């Protein structure tokens, strides 16, 4: 028995067949006239679930546990990342928790977080898979004039359950991390002394305060991942499936759809307030395809209905721009095009292990950065290896398991 999914931007349906012969699927009516016109021009997207009904259900059994906040769920996440990304997840002799000395931490030092169980663990696993990042969240350290250590973060959950930008004391952030039931693995990536010397803390603080309380950057989250027409979608994903999922969510939760992609797609067209279906009509009128529209680079200066939109990593890198980390390249780099992998690959971090604080990694010298929490040894392939350049990360493929990228893509 084979299971097929049939989709247009206006609907998703499915059917299953027991025998190899000609079959007919009938649409009793069109959702609206625009759907008929779309089908006349582009046809209906057909997805074969190659393992049939049983295999598809078994595949769901592989994915659904990723979101379970149990040992079973954690093992499912580790197995998925090992299978699809080649991650090792070598277990430490015992879970590692260092005692961070704030005196050894400086403004601009980068924090990477990898959650491996529960709701956020499952979400991060899928994010890692499509982007090639071996971490799923980031934050940044700041010190005030009194020498107190703070953490600035986009994606902090407030008391209402909203994901916002905050600047909170280090002790508070660290305590929340220790209590986090997603079993986070956390590393501190100190800036290189030469970069730290030119880091403008005053400008960084001004930027952080100007963004504090604003929403997480959902508007442009998927666009840091999608740079190319075909080479950012691990099978069985493709642009047709993306538009079908967008359509489904638009039907179910219109406000969610507007927040996640409609505004960003309007920005790319130079239009305002078009819903997904009008966006499709406009791309058709202009003679471009929807998958081409998705690849148009995000611009840092774009302002959305609720302000500048920055994901966890874009927030930090925009701060770096303000603080002078990128120097004369600042105006030619769009940080909203960066994934977490793109960020930790930047050659801006400490490259001399002997300069790392004594409390890093228990003094064994195994890692080139400071892992400060975790049950497993963290790995960040190609860490600290890529010099910044103009138009960085605007046209990069990201296909697993190698995630190979051309020079200066």
From TrEMBL:
Annotated Gene3D superfamilies: endopeptidase domain like (from Nostoc punctiforme) (3.90.1720.10)
Top-rank taxon, per record: Eukaryota
Listed name of the protein: Uncharacterized protein
